[in-house]
Amino acid sequence: MARLALDPFTPEQPLKVAQQYVALIHNVLERRNDLDSEHVRRVEQTMELIANRVIAEVRYDAERLMYLAERAAADGFPVHEQLIEVAGEHEAEIKRLGNEVIREYKALARKLQMPQKVQAVVRDVTEAAERFQDEWLTIIRQMRHRALAIGRRRVPDLTLVVAGELYTAALAEAGGAPEEMSLRPSIAGDMIVYEMVIPVAPALLEDTVRLAAMVDAMHDHVETMAPHLCGGLALRFVARDHAA
Question: Per the confidence metrics, is the pTM higher than 0.85?
Answer without folding.
Answer: no
